[in-house]
Design brief:
- The protein is α/β, with parallel strands linked by helices and about 675 residues long.
- The protein has 5 domains: about 110 residues, PriA, 3(prime) DNA-binding domain (GIY-YIG endonuclease), CATH 3.40.1440; about 190 residues, Rossmann fold; about 180 residues, 3-Layer(aba) Sandwich (Rossmann fold); about 60 residues, no CATH class; about 90 residues, Alpha-Beta Plaits (2-Layer Sandwich).
- It has 18 helices and 26 strands.
- A 7-stranded parallel beta sheet has the order 7-8-6-9-10-5-11, sandwiched between helices.
- A hairpin with an 8-residue loop joins strand 1 and strand 2.
- Helix 1 crosses helix 2, helix 3 runs parallel beside helix 4 and helix 14 runs parallel beside helix 15.
- The radius of gyration is 27 Å and the shape is globular.
- The two termini are about 50 Å apart.
- The chain binds zinc ion (2 copies).
- The site of one zinc ion (ZN) has 7 residues, from loops.
Amino acid sequence: MLFADVVLPLPVDHPFTYEIPSDIKVVVGSRVLVPFHKQKKVGFVIALHDRGGHHPLKKIEALPGPPETDLSPSYLEWLIWASHYYLAPLGEVLATALPSPFFKLDPRQSLPQKKSRSSPLADHWVHEKEVVLNDEQQKVFLQIRDNVFSGEFKPILLHGVTGSGKTEIYIHLIHEIIRSGKQVLYLVPEIGLTPQIVARLRHHFGEKLALYHSGLTENQRLREWLRVKSGTAVLLVGTRSALFGPFCNLGMIIIDEEHDSSYKQEERFRYQARDLALVRGKMEKIPVLMGSATPSLESYFNAKNKKYLFYSLTNRPEASAFPKITLIDMTVEKRQSGSPLILCRELHQAIADTLNRREQVLILFNRRGFAVSHFCLACQKGVVCPHCSVVLPYHKKQNILLCHYCDASQTLTSVCPSCGSSQMTLIGSGTETLEGELKTFYPQARINRLDRDSVQKKGALLSVLKDLREGKIDILVGTQMIAKGHDIARVTLVGVVGIDAVLGVPDFRSSERCFQLLTQVAGRAGRGTMPGKVIVQSFNPKHFSIKAVDDHAFDRFYEQELKWRSELGYPPYGRLIDIRFFSPDSGKIQHFIKWLFVQLPSLSIHETKILGPAPSPIEKLRGRYRWHLVLKGTSPSALRQTALKILSLRDQGGFKGIKWAVDVDPINML
Ligand SMILES: [Zn+2]
Ligand SMILES: [Zn+2]
């Protein structure tokens, strides 16, 4: 073979062909240095052949990199599959999958000389006792174990109610796999929110554990990467990017909280880590264990249709019982109490009781439901961000209107920007109001807040979680971040306010999200031996997803939601591809969309329904106008063919200023 096709970390759809000099040995997967325009770039060989074409080609140059940075053919094959499936350029897939030092001349130069601690997470809360399984856990563990050494691809869904002890089963399985000489990949949604799990795993597996997540520097990532590749690390724990770990001998993949939306990457190479892990498992012929208290509809459906093995844990080993859930109809509450308070009387009473018992309270609020906006009484319009088509929320601390999408801020105005009247007023209640209400009612209580804003400072998140655990916080108010995985024995009351806003999002997954969020947050109550209580405030308490949580009716929710999805052809019954168009120029994008409307009918399309083009629900974001097309169908390959045909229009019509993005299996259509 005289020539090599080389993929460079660029968003282009094709590889570049180079000549192989006789003194350099190159195989598929080799990391190579090539001249590219006037630069030199590092890329990977994906094919060898003898078709050089008519023009003399540039030559591959020698690369001093260590052999550990070459890719194995099977790994490369998996990435190529991903590039096809997600309609993403292979160069972009590689750039996402590999730590960035891979694309430097010698990655070893970027490795720190002295060994540094891989993460501050390592220091947290290790008081792990011997893990003993109860009868139910033991039974499920043995059943799963029977399937993990079969040398076959086995997708397994483990449904374990909150607090049922899935982690103990994972730990036992990991021990067994490692004992058999193989490696394990353990994916978690967000590592910062689950320091306990990392600490427990480190306690069990010590130096054999590698950590991989976005909080590491690129050099730390590289170091962990090489430990996995060489086999010094046998357990890799990490967020979605850990999926690309270069295992030499992978024996099992565990995906904890498989339903979590953090597994979806929402930019450039838009992949779903759970789905791609299943593909990897299939290629490597290994088991893939997915665990959740609230499985995604897709996984539930596959389990129901026997495509996945299905096991469930229905008991909480330590806790006395499931928390009692009380639904408060806020329409009735407002009418009866006539009070302007945010929290209902029952929740206030329960908070007071809980504090009296020196136990802890979590209050989940939905940010969407808690926004103050600057509103015109004359024309009924709010002040809209000039770059994003969203109403600007008011921030009391700085006394400004601040956009959550683009960070643009505006001062309050006395004149309405829409109609010019001077009847501007602030409406709605903000998170500060909620905190204020709590402070007024419980002046002695130590109250803290957990949301994206409050944890921006490094270490803030860990310190809040630590304080909560050590009993230094009485009431923790937070967004969905507080619903995830925390296991704190003294939390006995969970209050939920503003859940209706989740249902108000124009997305076919809103009921599923509402059910998952409520179930997960309710599961934070009563994890220890003290009984837990959950109070949910809603203006919509009869909604089936809220009712199902109230009744602990897991199957009923899924069956009802599946029925609705099947009627409309939404996943898991159908599949979607979202093709998005952006431009900062509204005239240009209008013109382009008109042209697209004319082009679409001339494409020959099979088994695909094209919805749109239509403006995205958020029509303008960070200064860009947004439109999209949704492709819907049951055959993934037909959908992909249609998408490719539409993408082939990209170079026609001369619309240079329009950016395109493709999202296969989208989970967020805003
Ligand atoms: Zn107005
Ligand atoms: Zn904005």
